[in-house]
Design goal:
Largest sheet: none
Radius of gyration: 21 Å
Shape: elongated
Number of strands: 0
Order of helices and strands: HHH
Strand content: under 5%
Number of helices: 3
Structural class: mainly alpha
Length: 100
């Protein structure tokens, strides 16, 4: 096990500040990702000519069940992958900050 080098006091204070921010960052990223996906979908439903929101709206208007289910599953997969990406980042940050 290696020993960490002593830090200068100013650098140590700066690092402790980032450690506290690092613990809260993944929670903020989770909320931001959810809101961004919701806003993108609403924008696509309101007036797009292409994209997931447009295909979902078009499938609903044309009673195309396969398209609607496909788009819902795609949105589910996108949301789950973003969540897992943020969770992996959170675990990595926790492991990194736990070392120091």
């Amino acid at each position: 096990m290696s020993r960490a080098k002593p830090m200068r006091p100013a650098l140590d204070l700066h690092w402790r500040r980032w450690r506290r921010a690092g613990i809260a960052a993944p929670a903020g990223a989770t909320v931001a990702t959810t809101l961004a996906m919701t806003a993108a979908l609403i924008g696509g439903l309101m007036g797009a000519n292409e994209g997931v929101g447009y295909l979902l709206s078009s499938g609903q208007e044309n009673a195309d069940t396969a398209t609607v289910i496909g788009m819902v599953l795609l949105l589910l997969l996108m949301g789950w992958s973003f969540y897992e990406l943020i969770e992996a980042l959170r675990r990595r940050m926790e492991a990194h900050f736990a070392e120091g």
